[in-house]
């Protein structure tokens, strides 16, 4: 019951999920998908209105609903709606699909129309509150049940039961899958720096713990880090502005990813500071640090980096992974400040971690 209560009290996820899509440059793609889906619904609804035997008043109502879906398509084509607008569109979409499904004379057409609820329920499950999802699924199941009863009364009870079961299964499982997907996206979002796409502090600690545990399971291994601080970044930010500063950070992040390659943790820990971690001895990490130092300096703004290297041997879980991370990062941080005091654009290696 406690889990159900926690689920029911979950807040609206529209704002942060929209921001997540924007930072991943996926918002235009999401708008395109929603525009196409809304247009498909508009065309389908209008075509249903021309179904044989459709009464005149009902046909007019369905035309209005089709125009509403066309309006949704126009909105998504122009911009991403606000959270309130999205909530209103979701409610209107549920009611519009329900009315469209219940107006045809042929109940089979109504059952077919009910499949449109599945996509809407998945959208609501991903972006909005459990309360709105419950409303959407409730309207959906009620409409499916009504259409199934009409089909059964028309003499096709087996088909009515079969379609009701299939529709109910889809309406219950698809939103559940959407909730799982959002949870995965949330885990990624809270562990990723939105500007650079690198890990943030939380993501670094989680990935580093996994790396250390794997090294410990091998019986003997190493964990090393490089602390990177950009030289003169604050002055550049004040002189050229934050937009240029952000561009520098994004460029340096791309450089770290390119030079380090797979199997290496690349992190922005805040401001102009970065951390690179790898399950390798400090000697190997120093070679990587030298490559990073040269690569970072090869930018059009003349920004360089001060780098500190530190590492530790991990032996079969002798120490807590969190303690190992703190020791190595602290040592690399001290070495990095030695490089900065020496003039920057150079590397220092810690004597011990």
From TrEMBL:
GO biological process terms, semicolon-separated: cell adhesion involved in single-species biofilm formation; negative regulation of bacterial-type flagellum-dependent cell motility
Signal sequence interval, chain numbering: none
InterPro entries: Diguanylate_Cyclase (IPR050469), GGDEF_dom (IPR000160), Nucleotide_cyclase (IPR029787), Rev_trsase/Diguanyl_cyclase (IPR043128)
Keyword Transferase (UniProt): no
Domain GGDEF positions: 221-352
Highest taxon above the source species: Bacteria
GO CC term, one of those recorded: plasma membrane
Entry keyword set: Membrane, Transmembrane, Transmembrane helix
GO molecular function terms listed in the Swiss-Prot or TrEMBL record: diguanylate cyclase activity
Membrane spanning stretches: 26-48, 60-77, 86-103, 109-125, 132-153, 159-182
Gene3D superfamilies, per database record: 3.30.70.270
NCBIfam families (UniProt xref): GGDEF
Full protein name: GGDEF domain-containing protein
Organism: Mycolicibacterium murale
């Amino acid at each position: 019951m406690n889990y159900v209560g926690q689920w029911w009290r979950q807040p609206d996820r529209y704002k942060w999920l929209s921001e997540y899509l924007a930072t991943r440059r996926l918002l235009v793609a999401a708008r395109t998908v929603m525009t196409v889906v809304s247009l498909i619904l508009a065309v389908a609804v209008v075509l249903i209105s021309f179904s044989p035997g459709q009464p005149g008043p009902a046909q007019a109502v369905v035309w209005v609903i089709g125009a509403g879906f066309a309006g949704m398509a126009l909105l998504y084509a122009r911009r991403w709606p606000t959270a309130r607008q999205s909530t209103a569109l979701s409610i209107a979409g549920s009611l519009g699909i329900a009315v469209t499904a219940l107006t045809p004379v042929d109940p089979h057409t109504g059952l077919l129309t009910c499949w449109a609820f599945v996509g809407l329920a998945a959208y609501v499950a991903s972006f909005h509150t459990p309360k709105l999802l419950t409303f959407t699924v409730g309207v959906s199941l009620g409409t499916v049940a009504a259409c199934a009863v009409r089909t059964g009364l028309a003499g096709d009870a087996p088909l009515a039961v079969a379609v009701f079961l299939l529709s109910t299964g889809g309406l219950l499982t698809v939103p559940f899958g959407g909730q799982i997907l959002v949870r995965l996206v949330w885990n990624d979002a809270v562990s990723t720096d939105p500007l650079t796409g690198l890990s943030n502090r939380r993501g670094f600690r989680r990935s580093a713990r996994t790396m250390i545990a794997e090294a410990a399971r091998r019986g003997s291994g190493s964990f090393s880090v490089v602390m990177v601080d950009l030289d003169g970044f604050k002055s550049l930010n004040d002189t050229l502005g934050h937009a240029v500063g952000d561009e520098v950070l994004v460029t340096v992040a791309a450089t770290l990813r390119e030079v380090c390659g797979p199997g290496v943790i690349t992190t922005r820990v805040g401001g102009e500071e970065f951390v690179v971690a790898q399950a390798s001895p400090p000697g190997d990490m120093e070679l990587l640090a030298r490559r990073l130092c040269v690569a970072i300096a090869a930018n059009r703004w003349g920004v360089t980096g001060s780098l500190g290297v530190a590492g530790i041997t991990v032996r079969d879980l002798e120490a807590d992974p969190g303690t190992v991370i703190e020791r190595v990062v602290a040592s690399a941080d001290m070495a990095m400040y030695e490089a900065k005091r020496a003039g920057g654009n150079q590397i220092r290696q810690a004597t011990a971690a």
